[in-house]
Amino acid sequence: MKKAVSVLMSLVIAATVSACAFAENIRVTNTAITAEDIPENGTIIAVLYDSDGALTGLKTYKGTETAKYAEDMANALPDSEMIKVFVWDMENIKPLGKVYGDKLDALPSGEPEAEKSLHMKIGDTAAEVEWEDNEAVTALKELCKTEPLTIKMSKYGGFEQVGGIGKSLPRNDVSITTSPGDVILYSGNQLVVFYGSNQWAYTRLGHIIDKTQSELSELLGGENVTITISM
Predict the structure, then answer these.
(1) pTM for the structure as a whole
(2) What is the CATH number of domain 114-230?
(3) Where are the domains of the chain?
């Protein structure tokens, strides 16, 4: 899940390291590190890491200035899993204290649920789909994670549009009597969207819930359509 600057928007953390005389005057809140009463030789060091412990961003702030998370830090946040903030005496090269360190993914992301969902378009028309909670849909989300999946469909049998996904998804085929609006995985690598009915062994992906049968027939009854699925 991609993190945004909002990861830190509601974060208010007072330092807990009693060994640091200045810890109670340093906090992370509203995308800023706020420092008070840090001596002139004190430097705040903010370090970001990814899940493998590799460095993704580093910024230093001198003395009592307020350290804003502006573009320099915000650009590193999406790839970061942990933040550590220290205070050092850079003149004498010695630590004054560890202010804060924790995993970013333990904090609320603030990402709206809709941004995590799959969205479907039939041509240029958005279709609201109630997606199944199964391995095939999870794999479909991964497939659409970085860019939309565009599928060129062909009319078949007078009741469905079918097109190749370009990759095999996990199958859990069962005998299904489909209804208009059903979104189906066929043979592991074919997307089928029904505007009529058929019975076969399929893996169910979802169902279009905001279109009537006549609307589906109008959208899907032509010779060829394009389906776009995106996150």
Answers:
(1) 0.52
(2) 2.40.100.20
(3) 5-106, 114-230
Q: Picking from 3-12, 49-58, 97-106, which range would have the lowest pLDDT averaged per residue?
A: 3-12
Buried b (16+ CB within 10 A) or exposed e, 102-118: eebeebeeeeeeeeeeb
Answer whether CATH 3.40.50 is correct for domain 5-106. Answer: no
Tokens 């830090």 appear where? 73
pLDDT tens-digit profile of 183-196?
A: 999 999 999 999 99
Query: Residue 223 — pLDDT band, cuts 50, 70, 90?
Result: confident
Q: Give me the chain's average pLDDT, please.
A: 74
Output phi, psi for 38, to 5 deg. -80, 135
Q: Is the dihedral of CA 55, 105, 231, 167 positive or negative?
A: positive
